[in-house]
Amino acid sequence: MNLSRDVETDKLIREGQSGNSEAIDKLIRKYAADVHRLIYSIMGNSDKVPDLAQETFLRIFSRLDQYRFQSSFRAWIIQIAVNLCRDEFRKARVRKIISPLFPDSEDSIHSDDPGTRPDFKLERNETRQQIIIALQKLDKSLRMVFTLREIEGLPYEEIARILNWRLGTVKSRLFRARKELAGMLSHQLEDL
Amino acid sequence: MIAPKKCNYLKMVSRYMDNDLNEGEKKALQTHLIHCYTCQKHFKAFLHLKQASRFNYPVSPYFAPRVFSALKQTTPPFWKQMAILPEFLVKSGLVIATLILIFIATADIFNNSPSEMTEPSENLILIDELDRQTTLVSNDQALRFALNSNDIIKDNPNEF
User: Fold this and answer.
1) What burial class does residue B68 get, using C-beta atoms within 10 Å of its C-beta: 0-12 exposed, 13-18 middle, 19+ buried?
2) Predicted ipTM?
């Protein structure tokens, strides 16, 4: 799926804007996997993926009338999902600060290392699973740039726009992310 | 394990993965890769990373119906509910309402202007007359009271 103008998608969006539920259903099904994968790669926690993906689509369809066909619809969806993930990180930071005050709360169990979670058996492919685990060890900015480029396949310009960075920052952080991941996953990558 | 050696070409290796090099840079990198072990290792690792990163996430078949039911539960704000009316009707209605408000506001200012305040209306004259009569009556009563009081004082001078 590329970011160029897609006539079929534009038609679905127009129909969705006029309240056609069938068009909305088709748009959800078309982008659901992308949104799930993106959130999963950034958050590294499969529990939160469906809820955040749902919230992403709710935001999209509540603002669908504001979409003016000037930018890529997919990039717009990704931007909303990335912003939601950032909000979630902020909330998690606050929860981390206040968790000593409420030791019995469920949020006191942090999911920093998804590899230790019993439910982290989503991917059959061992290397991919290792990549997701290694991604969670990266700095959040490196994790996001790597996800947007390598997992979602966005061009530099779109990444710079979504993350509000300069093009040079995107390139240098992407390089750092690759280098750190390659260092962490050298054994798995050699086996490929 | 990838050797943590530094090489000035490593950033270029990363950009090569994204097809971000021009022809001159590509040739320079290819020549460099022949004899740089660090860059060769990173090139392979970055390439494998790229290939392994593409995956499909299994989405629940209930996801779309779930989003739909959540969409139905969210009540749109009142201005969106007005969207059932044609857009031009909503916009023209807003323009007319704004014009009426401006008219009322300016009319109110002109009504309170000093030039019109100099000519009191008929009702105001009547109220003035009423006030004057009330004052006259009151004064008359006060005089009588005063005269009576004087009579009382005259009759009982020791009490005052």
Assistant:
1) middle
2) 0.76
User: What's the pLDDT tens digit per position in A109-160?
Assistant: 344 444 444 344 444 467 778 888 899 999 999 999 999 999 999 999 999 9
Q: What is the mean pLDDT of residues A74-88?
A: 93
Per-residue pLDDT at B140: 64
Collapse the DSSP code of B110 into the 3-class scheme (helix H, G, I; strand E, B; otherwise coil) and give the result.
helix
Q: How many CB atoms lie within 10 A of CB B103?
A: 10
What is the 3-class SS of A39-53, one letter each residue? HHHHHCCCCCHHHHH
Chain B residues touching residue A172 (CB < 8 angstroms): 11
Q: Which of B17, B53, B66 sits opposite A54 (nearest CB)?
A: B66
**pLDDT above 70 (res B132):** no
Percent of residues in chain A assigned helix, strand, coil, to nearest 5: 75, 0, 25
Q: Where are the domains of chain A?
A: 1-112, 123-192
Contact A182 B66 (CB under 8 A): no
Cβ density class B31-59: b for 16+ within 10 Å, e for less: ebbeebebbebbbbbbebbbebbebebeb
Identify whether the C-beta of residue B14 lies closer than 8 Å to the C-beta of residue A178. Answer: yes
Is the minimum CB–CB distance between B55 and chain A shorter than 8 Å?
yes
Structure-model confidence comparison of residues A115 and B30, the more confident one: B30
Domain A123-192, what architecture?
A: Orthogonal Bundle (1.10)
- Domain covering A1-112 assigned CATH 1.10.1740.10 in the classification: yes
Chain A residues with CB-CB distance to B49 below 8 A: 131, 150, 178, 181-182, 185, 189
Residue with tokens 């040739």: B27
Quick one: what percent of chain A has pLDDT higher than 90? 53
Q: Where are the domains of chain B?
A: 10-53, 120-155
Contacts of B38 in chain A (CB under 8 A): none
Interface test with A, best of B10, B41, B48, B74 (most A CBs within 10 A): B48
